[in-house]
Design goal:
Blueprint lengths: L1 H21 L3 H21 L2 H8 E8 L3 E3 H6 L7 E4 L3 E4 L5 E11 L9 E11 L5 E11 L10 E2 L9 E2 L2 E2 L4 H17 L2 H8 E9 L5 E2 L1 H4 L8 E12 L5 E12 L8 E11 L5 E10 L3
Parallel strand pairs: 1-7, 4-8, 11-16
Antiparallel strand pairs: 1-2, 3-5, 4-5, 5-6, 6-7, 9-10, 11-12, 13-14, 14-15, 15-16
Helix pairs in contact: 2-3, 5-6
Length: 299
């Protein structure tokens, strides 16, 4: 009887913890992601990049070099290094259920921990996923590079999370429909590779989208990002290798290989890109791109 009562108590505590975790609002989740990102960066500063990444990466996390590879295997196979990486989040969004989110911001990289070596600048993008213990782990991490910014922005902005959630049944969320995100990716690729990248951009990118390319500062907002697609002959196709959707079915991400070419030429002459896209549900229920980052690969 005592063991039965103890089991009930443990079950009740476990249920309480799960309820507390799932009761988190998107804004609260985003703030926790930001706090975890800051702790991650501090760990790298206090110890080494390798120690920090091995602690905060999920076992199945990918880092882009520039193609996606297992992050823990990549970092654990690297020789000891005194390289210094500093970064901080300035924009964070989370799913309606708080189980998944995005963090992005500037980074500064030195090949050695010395003020005498050059500093490389860019913006990082990290995908976070909440674990069973309520803590967040990085599922994907990559970044672009660009010149030194004129201003050092440190202020954090919490993005507006969509309130769309899947129906509840017997207290359990209906599994997220990953197929609809894959379909959105497929339609975007089909549109961009036949009607043109500009049409795909106008049809599938959200108003607050962020577009990251190597050598450029982030384009923030659809009006700004449109400059990337002014060339009406630009064509883009995408081959998705991975996709994941939040429990609330309103936030997800995909990554894979893209090909970019001119309508005046052949796709075989195009440039290969390794990409990651973050998607969010719009008010009308359709998936829209919230962030798009692509890095050049060797053909």
């Amino acid at each position: 009887m005592k063991s039965f009562i103890l089991a009930l108590m443990i079950f009740a505590v476990g249920e309480s913890s799960v309820m507390t975790i799932h009761a988190m609002t998107p804004q609260e989740a985003a703030k926790q992601i930001a706090e975890t990102e800051w702790a991650f960066a501090k760990k790298a500063s206090d110890t080494t990049m390798t120690i920090a990444f091995l602690e905060y990466l999920h076992d199945e996390a990918v880092v882009f070099r520039p193609e996606p590879v297992n992050g823990k295997l990549w970092y654990s196979s690297r020789p000891p290094s005194s390289a210094q990486l500093k970064w901080w989040p300035i924009y964070v969004i989370a799913s309606s259920t708080g189980d998944m989110g995005l963090s992005t911001g500037p980074y500064e990289f030195r090949t050695e921990n010395s003020d005498t070596v050059p500093v490389y600048h860019g913006h990082f993008v990290s995908i976070w996923q909440r674990q069973a213990d309520g803590k967040y782990k990085v599922m994907a991490d990559l970044g672009n590079s660009h010149d030194k910014p004129e201003a050092r922005i440190t202020e954090l902005t919490i993005g507006n999370a969509n309130s769309t959630t899947v129906p509840k049944k017997s207290g359990l969320a209906i599994p997220a429909s990953e197929e609809t995100l894959v379909q959105a990716e497929s339609l975007y690729s089909a549109t961009s590779s036949t009607e043109g990248a500009l049409v795909g951009f106008e049809r599938y990118f959200g108003d607050e989208v962020r577009v990251y390319r190597d050598g450029d500062y982030p384009f923030i907002g659809k009006a700004s990002a449109a400059s990337m697609y002014r060339d009406s002959s630009l064509m883009i196709s995408s081959q998705t290798s991975f996709s994941s959707v939040s429990q609330g079915d309103d936030f997800g991400y995909t990554y894979g290989v893209a090909k970019q070419w001119s309508r005046k030429t052949s796709p075989t002459t195009g440039v290969k890109l390794s990409y990651l896209r973050v998607w969010q549900r719009a008010a009308d229920g359709h998936w829209k791109v919230a962030l798009d980052i692509a890095l050049p690969m060797s053909n």
